[in-house]
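Q: Please design a sequence for this.
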């Protein structure tokens, strides 16, 4: 339907009809107005598979493919693969008559303890943004909408409905918002879901700066904003701020609030925005209805209830998992070649492949690692631990006996489902005690032991030095079992890379001490130094660095070439990295490109990921990965000018296979415009000397105070502010005269 036609429809509606559209019909659909031919559309979680539970209650849902959750998908370092996953989800959404999938979820992983870390991509906004963009483009390629969530800063579950996230402007822009900015601009999601929490004192659901100034005015978002389920506080203020749809429906309460706000009657909730007086105009309501209906009509028209091939999707889920799991350690134990393997751990038969909460998919075809491994070699199973009881040590001795009688042991373990869920955070990074003891005792008996980890967020690994191999399988979706078997037996070559750093100790994490906050407030005192940015800046060794992952082949980073050695800040530069596969097996490598500013004016990370590319390299061959870096790759957010800023100087471009290993570097000189603050009485003498209006100012001052003042001026201490002139020139220059001069000079071109 055309915009003009929707406008005409809105003109026909009563105020009550309009406000009825701005809240859900129930938990999973929008309101229809049959008399005007306005349809309802269906929404369903997300993000790594459909959870269509309309009519089934909260805990049941229509079976669907469970794809790898974002924690694993992001380790693919492959936007195209994310697109493929999105497209498959989009097909299932069409079949299940879902018009908007509630995802992807794209909050930054600030702490490994975050309860929903498994649903989020990364600690790095560039990686996170690209993976989310891929998922959105994939889903939307099937003419199904998305809801990029949770905007913004929902990096913890503790007190998520009320917590106030206190974050500096620069960290917000460079880290937390940047993760959303790229997918909003590149992939254009049909909707954005606002978060429950407050950001710097204001609930996201009524935060005009966030929902309108940044999202719409700066980033050009054209869809509609929906609330997270129950995130609305002051509904009227929400509409003013840019929140179109409240979810789920609130059965009339908030409709009345909106009608009252338009009619100048009492609105129950206090306004928290001085510019909003709890009054709305019909125009504001119309605008919100228009934005919503444009998407509703468009998605409704594109419904296409074609049945999809779930077995093909299962295979897609397996392929994505294989391309994403991360080989962390290999002392020659892998790939498995011949002999008998003791497969130990309940997760081998009762796999852990997704997290708890609203993203929980009723998976169609969950494969067990044990069954999949049995396809490739001789295996024998022992339970080893109990998923229901962390302190059950009774199963260890059988497992140890079995391990001793085999050629190797593979322990499949990790965090039980109850450890990781929406709604609460973890309080430590440890595996259950029974699992740790099991690993210890098995290794003592069978030195050739490999650990396969199934977890949604980093865990401590006291066994790291004792075992022969570690495969970080994360939460791999319904095909995790097959992916694990293929990787262990070398049917596939591992090529996943960590999308987050694994700290040696929780205490090393930058948020430690400020997570999950106190008195309903969290101080993000680490600022921009999240994840590897922190560990590198503070020289803190990590267990495994961001971007790290081994392969069964080896890659050599041969050369890096820049298209130019000098650029203007608005020019792009092309970077070509040549990589050779020097091993015996074909493989994929995620080539990572980082940028460091040599002598920054402000504190900047040692390096920051700016681009990445996954390339396939045949054994013995070389390929080139080509990247384009633009202004933003050199910029930082300046909280004085409230904008992205590049300073002239030398920037080093680093290419490598992890944040910790960048063997190739090349530098480029960037020339950027100069930034000057307006002169003020607080400008220092040293700033005055380089200020473009410095000479003019001095001339004016001398004409007021007399030429003899020049000598004194030349001897002023560098760090003194201009106001000190008044006392230095024996009353020849009064404060009002000085202020007038400053104003005059500032206003001249
Ligand atoms: C979650 C969202 C989810 C919604 C609907 C909320 O509790 O935070 O991610 O989409 O519920 O299930």
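A: Design:
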């Amino acid at each position: 339907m055309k915009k003009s036609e929707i406008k005409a429809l809105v003109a026909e509606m009563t105020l009550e009809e309009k406000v009825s559209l701005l809240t859900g019909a129930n938990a999973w659909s929008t309101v229809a107005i049959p008399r005007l031919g306005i349809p309802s559309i269906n929404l369903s979680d997300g993000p790594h598979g459909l959870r269509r539970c309309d009519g089934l209650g909260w805990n049941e849902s229509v079976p669907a493919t469970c794809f790898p959750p974002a924690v694993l998908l992001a380790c693919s370092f492959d936007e195209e693969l994310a697109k493929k996953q999105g497209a498959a989800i989009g097909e299932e959404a069409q079949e299940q008559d879902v018009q908007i999938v509630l995802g992807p979820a794209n909050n930054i992983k600030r702490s490994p303890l975050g309860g929903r870390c498994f649903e989020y991509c990364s600690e790095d906004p560039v990686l996170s943004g690209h993976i989310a963009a891929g998922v959105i483009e994939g889903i939307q390629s099937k003419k199904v909408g998305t809801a990029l969530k949770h905007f913004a800063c929902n990096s913890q579950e503790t007190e998520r409905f009320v917590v106030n996230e206190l974050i500096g402007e620069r960290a917000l822009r460079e880290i937390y918002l940047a993760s959303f900015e790229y997918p909003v601009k590149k992939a254009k999601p049909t909707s954005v879901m606002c978060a429950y929490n407050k950001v710097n004192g204001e609930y996201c659901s009524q935060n005009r700066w966030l929902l309108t100034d940044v999202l719409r005015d700066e980033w050009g978002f054209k869809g509609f904003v929906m609330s997270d389920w129950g995130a609305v506080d002051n509904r009227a203020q929400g509409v003013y701020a840019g929140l179109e749809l409240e979810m789920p429906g609130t059965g009339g309460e908030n409709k009345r609030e909106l009608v009252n706000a338009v009619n100048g009657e009492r609105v129950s909730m206090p306004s928290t925005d001085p510019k909003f007086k709890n009054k709305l105009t019909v125009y504001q309501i119309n605008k919100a209805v228009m934005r919503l209906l444009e998407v509703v009509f468009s998605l409704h028209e594109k419904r296409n209830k074609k049945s999809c091939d779930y077995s093909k999707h299962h295979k897609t889920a397996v392929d994505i998992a294989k391309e994403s799991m991360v080989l962390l350690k290999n002392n020659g134990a892998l790939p498995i070649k011949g002999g008998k393997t003791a497969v130990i751990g309940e997760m081998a038969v009762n796999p852990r492949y997704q997290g708890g909460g609203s993203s929980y998919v009723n998976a169609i075809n969950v494969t067990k690692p044990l069954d999949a491994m049995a396809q490739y070699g001789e295996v024998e199973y022992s339970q080893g631990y109990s998923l229901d009881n962390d302190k059950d040590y009774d199963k260890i001795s059988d497992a140890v006996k079995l391990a001793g009688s085999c050629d190797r042991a593979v322990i499949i373990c990790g965090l039980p489902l109850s450890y990781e869920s929406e709604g609460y955070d973890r309080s430590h990074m440890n595996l259950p005690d029974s699992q740790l003891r099991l690993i210890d005792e098995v290794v003592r008996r069978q030195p050739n032991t490999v650990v396969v980890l199934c977890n949604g967020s980093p865990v401590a690994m006291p066994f790291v030095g004792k075992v022969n191999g570690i495969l970080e399988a994360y939460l791999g979706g319904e095909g995790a079992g097959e992916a694990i078997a293929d990787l262990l037996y070398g049917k596939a070559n591992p090529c996943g890379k960590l999308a987050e750093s694994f700290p040696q100790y929780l205490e090393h994490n930058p948020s430690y001490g400020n997570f999950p906050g106190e008195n309903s407030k969290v101080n993000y005192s680490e600022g921009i130094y999240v994840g590897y940015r922190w560990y590198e800046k503070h020289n803190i060794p990590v267990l495994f660095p961001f971007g790290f992952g081994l392969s069964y082949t080896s890659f050599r980073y041969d050369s890096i070439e820049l298209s130019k050695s000098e650029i203007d800040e608005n020019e792009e530069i092309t970077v070509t990295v040549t990589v050779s596969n020097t091993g015996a097996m074909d493989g994929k490598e995620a080539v990572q490109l980082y940028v460091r500013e040599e002598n920054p004016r402000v504190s900047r990370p040692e390096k920051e990921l700016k681009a990445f590319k996954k390339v396939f390299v045949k054994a013995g061959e070389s390929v080139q990965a080509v990247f384009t870096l633009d202004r933003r790759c050199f910029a930082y957010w300046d909280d004085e000018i409230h904008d992205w800023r590049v300073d002239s100087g030398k920037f080093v471009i680093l290419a490598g296979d992890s944040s910790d290993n960048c063997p190739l570097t090349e530098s480029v000189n960037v020339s950027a415009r100069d930034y000057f603050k307006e002169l003020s009485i607080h400008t220092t003498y040293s700033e005055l000397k380089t200020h473009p209006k410095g000479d003019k100012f001095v001339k004016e001052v001398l004409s007021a105070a007399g030429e003899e003042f020049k000598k004194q001026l030349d001897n002023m201490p560098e760090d003194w502010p201009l106001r000190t002139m008044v006392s230095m020139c024996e009353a020849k220059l009064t404060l009002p005269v000085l202020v007038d001069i400053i104003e005059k000079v500032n206003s001249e071109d």
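Q: Thanks. Anything notable?
A: The pocket of beta-D-glucopyranose is lined by residues 45-46, 102, 149, 228-229, 358 (CB under 6 Å). Residues 115 and 184 are 25 Å apart (CA to CA).
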